[in-house]
Write a sequence for this structure.
């Protein structure tokens, strides 16, 4: 749940063709394909985030074959193109999260960059994580934050209200 709320994506996992076909059929009520304007909706239903530029490109390409509908084989091509694009733009979660850790230690624990560099700590306060996730970027709801804290307590090493940051990152990557 938490990763859906993080501002950056992990490398996407390929959606199996059978799953793509099942979702496609839900939108293909008449058996003639999905409506052109539904390409983005069906992709989002599969967990894919095609850009507006990609969707315009897919729509223009599909319109050359049929002005109203997109057939499954063409849609599957667009899905693969979208997945390839997402993979090319994926980020190194560990590296990105290390920046978050330094920020937490600097702003909440009031440690200087020199202190962080010379005496790195492996933990961050759970309360600081809660504050950050509830107030910065795409804010998490109180319920989502509490669910995240339960997951942290169930699967990460904790001591004195602080979570082992490597465990926290592993938890994010497992989701």
């Amino acid at each position: 749940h938490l990763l859906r709320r993080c501002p950056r994506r992990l490398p996407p996992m390929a959606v199996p063709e059978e799953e793509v076909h099942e979702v496609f059929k839900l939108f293909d009520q008449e058996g003639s394909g999905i409506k052109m304007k539904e390409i983005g909706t069906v992709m989002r239903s599969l967990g894919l985030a095609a850009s507006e530029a990609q969707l315009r490109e897919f729509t223009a390409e599909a319109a050359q074959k049929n002005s109203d509908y997109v057939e499954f084989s063409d849609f599957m091509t667009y899905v693969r193109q979208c997945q390839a694009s997402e993979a090319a733009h994926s980020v190194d979660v560990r590296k990105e999260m290390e920046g978050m850790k330094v920020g937490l230690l600097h702003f909440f624990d009031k440690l200087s960059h020199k202190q962080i560099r010379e005496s790195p700590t492996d933990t961050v306060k759970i309360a600081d994580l809660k504050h950050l996730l509830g107030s910065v970027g795409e804010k998490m709801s109180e319920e989502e934050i509490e669910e995240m804290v339960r997951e942290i307590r169930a699967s990460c090493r904790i001591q004195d209200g602080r979570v082992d940051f490597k465990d926290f990152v592993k938890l994010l990557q497992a989701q």
